[in-house]
Design a protein that fits this description.
Rossmann fold, six-stranded parallel β-sheet, 13 strands, 14 helices, DUF354 domain-containing protein, 2 domains, DUF354, alpha/beta, single chain
Length: 343
């Protein structure tokens, strides 16, 4: 079986790494393509994944359209002669369009019902869509998804990040961090360059939170790009992490996570590290999943976030038992079935 996997965002590397390793161990032929964006290439090298670099990210709407169009053009030439049996992606714009055009069965993983442009461009073209049960199927149908293609599971996509996770309790020492306070808070700025979030990449909702909490805890910032790192440079008790790093161990080692994005917040919830979401957009269903289970607190009120943070670093929540489906097996089973049956 020949499988094509396209990776378009940094968290997707961790999502697919175990799928790639499993398929290769089974003797399957795996073609991995990845665009140049954020830390994708560094993470691919860190996890020793062979890949073909194709295209890059666009910032403005014009740039996004132009880069995506050029990426489709270049990917078609690569994939056309490969005789691919099945294609797999997570929120890739280009893979479903190419797979549909070349008649390749495609499996699509979705966890953001608010990505309006991406969902309209992809969902009507996918043969199967794997999505968390918490996401309303009717919302996906409004984007053109065939309800017969939707496969729901209990949990969120971040479960995949921990299939082969080995915790490094010495991660802070390995990073040579200067930690003056007994408590440590990891923070992740908002995804300012994403098409679904209209924010200034040179500002962050975390700034006033950092200013207040730096006096009571060590602050670790994991920026998404250079401009975000510059926001927090030179601030006392603030350490800026330079990716790629072992984010999973850092999350588990930290006393609290405050995130203005999504992925890291949900990773913290899975690892049962107290987490506060101050994501400036509309609440995602996958975040609500962990909020409902008492594993995540959400607020966009700065004072409320600070108050809750002070409470959680002193009195973290008790461990909560959460039962989920085996997403890895759901993906593998559907890949093989699609390759065999085509639909």
């Amino acid at each position: 079986m020949k499988v094509w996997i396209d990776i378009s965002n940094a968290p997707h590397v961790r999502f697919f790494k175990d799928v790639i390793k499993y398929l290769e161990a089974e003797g399957e032929d795996v073609i991995v393509t990845a665009r140049q964006f954020g830390d994708i290439h560094k993470l691919m090298e860190m996890y020793d994944i062979d890949f073909i670099s194709v295209g890059k990210h666009g910032v403005s709407l014009y740039d996004k359209l132009r880069e995506s169009t050029e990426r489709v053009y270049n990917l078609v030439d690569i994939i056309n002669g490969e005789k691919v049996d099945v294609a797999l992606s997570k929120h890739s714009i280009e893979l479903p369009r190419i797979s549909f055009g070349l008649g390749i069965p495609s499996l699509y993983v979705l966890d953001n019902e608010h990505a309006l442009a991406a969902n309209k461009l992809t969902l009507p073209l996918c043969d199967r869509i794997i999505t968390p049960k918490i996401i309303d199927m009717w919302k996906l149908m409004k984007f053109g998804a065939d309800p017969n293609t939707i496969i729901s599971y209990d949990g969120t996509s971040e479960l995949m990040h921990f299939k082969s996770f080995e915790y490094n309790d010495n991660v802070f020492d390995d990073l040579n961090l200067e930690l003056k306070h007994p408590k440590t808070i990891l923070m992740r700025p908002e995804p300012s360059l994403a098409s679904y979030l209209n924010t200034d990449c040179r500002k962050s909702v975390l700034s006033p939170i950092v200013d207040e909490l730096k006096n009571v805890a060590n602050i670790l910032i994991l920026p998404r790009f250079k401009e975000q790192a510059e926001i927090f440079e030179g601030i006392e008790n603030v350490s800026i992490l330079k990716p790629p790093v072992d984010t999973s161990s850092i999350i588990k080692k930290s006393d609290l996570v405050i995130g203005a994005g999504g992925t890291m917040n949900r990773e913290a919830a899975i690892l049962q590290t107290p987490v506060i979401s101050c994501y400036p957009g509309e609440t995602l269903s996958v975040d609500q999943y962990y909020i409902n289970k008492g594993l995540m607190f959400r607020s966009i009120d700065t004072d409320e976030v600070i108050e809750k943070a002070l409470d959680l670093i002193v009195k973290p929540h008790e461990e909560i038992d959460v039962k989920t489906d085996d997403l890895f097996q759901v993906i593998i089973d559907n890949l093989y079935d699609l390759a065999k049956n085509g639909k």
